[in-house]
Amino acid sequence: MPETEPGRPDYEAIERIKQDATPRLLAVPGVTAVALGAKVVAGRPTDTPSIKVFVRDKRPAAKVPPDELIPADIDGVPTDVETGGDLTPLAAPPTGVLNATRLALDSKTYRPVIGGGTLTTAGSSASGTLGCLLWDAANPHVGYALTNQHVAHPPDIRTMEKDRTEIGQPDGDRLSKNCCNDIIGVWAGGDKNADRDEAVVRLSPGMKWKAEIAGIGRVAGIHELTREEGNSKSYQVRKRGAVTRLTGGFITGFTATTNEIQNMIIITPNPHPNAGPRDTTFFAYDGDSGSVLVNDANEVVGLLHHKDGGGRGWATPITHVLARLAEHEKLDLQVATSPPGVPIQVHTVPGGPTVAVPHEVAQQVAADPAMRSTFQGSGDRAPLGRPWFTDVPPPADALAHVRADLDGSSAGRLLGALWATHRTELTRLVTSDRRVMIVWHRGGGAALVQLLLRMLTHTDRTLPETLNGEPLMTCLDRLHSRLAQYASPALRTDLDRARAVLPDLAGLSYQGIVDALADVSQRNADQQGADQ
Q1: Helices 396-406 and 510-531 sit at what angle, rounded to 10 degrees?
Q2: Do 146 and 290 reside in the same domain of the chain?
Q3: Which domain holds residue 516?
Q4: Residue 90 has what pLDDT?
Q5: Can you point out the beta strands (E) in 58-160?
Q6: Which pTM does this prediction carry?
Q7: Cβ-proximal residues to 340 (8 Å cutoff; 6+ apart), any chain
Q8: Same-domain status, 202 and 282
Q9: 134 within 8 A of 276, measured Cβ to Cβ
Q10: What would the pLDDT profile of 24-62 be if each residue is shown by its tens digit?
């Protein structure tokens, strides 16, 4: 064993020996990868550095041809043969492989945007993980989401357009099932080759984000593994992926090389206490691609991109990732951090047109700490083109309760049918048609949606009696007229039918709205009975 002094390994010499030996080792049939790491004896890591050789199948030495036998040491450095190394990109989860509950993608909307959630390119059926947030070195409010290139550009997306291809969290939809715009930004660059597999998403103007990872907490910085740490038997890391959520493991190899990828970190999962003899414990699984490795100091160590059949994760050092983004994309980015001891700062990406928020709504925002922390704007102004409330959407049971309440009256059923039938066209009109968009925002449409969604979980909230000093129903009539002006014939008809049964909503709570819809329905039914 090369040593700098008695008992102290010469890590530089060991790394040179490994690099020199890698091409001929990878040429041996069945060898999948070569790395450095602590030698494992009887299933336990030791303090001895070794050249780790990964093979598809381990065979007794007597059954291996002499020219394929891995020597016990190479130039004095012990070897360690392990099974694995055939890498599989961590793409969208397959069906029917393991328990469906364990493999379910995290469908939660994280606003402000943080790391650890599901990320999906618009138009794709495949998803991965948003690892962590980066910021522009020149302006820390300009945020970027870090993931893998094979997540941002999955097989079902034919081409990527820089600064145009939209990417969402959790889904790639402009309108999700929870009434929120999922799109958080656009693809700003990245690539997948033997040297890299990373991509960045430039967050949209007005988007709020935090230097935090779900289940892990604030991010403290980055850490480059030392040779001593890479050869250690106890360097612990964690990751938060969209499928397996929070898992832990320890570094068992670094500077790993295969015939296709180089300079990787290998992570072995910590043992699971309930694992049986036939169970495989995974550090990461399909759908976790793009998550980041975080050490015990909450520093980002690497970017995860593959798994192997032995349950290990394979990642690229974060310093290498940032260097490639600077070299190829000319992006001077750093891992966004949050200092300890103070509340995690909510950053807002600057830029983008804004419109004034009705002062009645601005007052409610100012008085409500929860709304202040999540409102997409300053309180008196909001980004144009973002009509939906961007707080974490109401729970599914709350939305189901609303549907049930609407189904309880004929007027409520009309309103529910209007949204269910025309939500795509309605969303297009208020987000893309500037003639409608301006009136929608200035007339308080976006503000009303924000307040109504808030009222689902805060039943003491009420709608204002006025917007910009005008009666609430006058504003709604103006919005109705503008929507109807540019709507399709089918939508125009249903808008008119819904307006005909809409009661005066001024000052009403959620339950007051439900009761008012029931009263209108009863009056209409009584009138129809009298007419007959």
Answers
A1: 20
A2: no
A3: 354-531
A4: 58
A5: 73-74, 77-83, 87-89, 113-115, 118-121, 128-129, 132-136, 139-147
A6: 0.67
A7: 218, 220
A8: no
A9: no
A10: 999 999 898 899 988 888 778 888 899 999 898 888 888
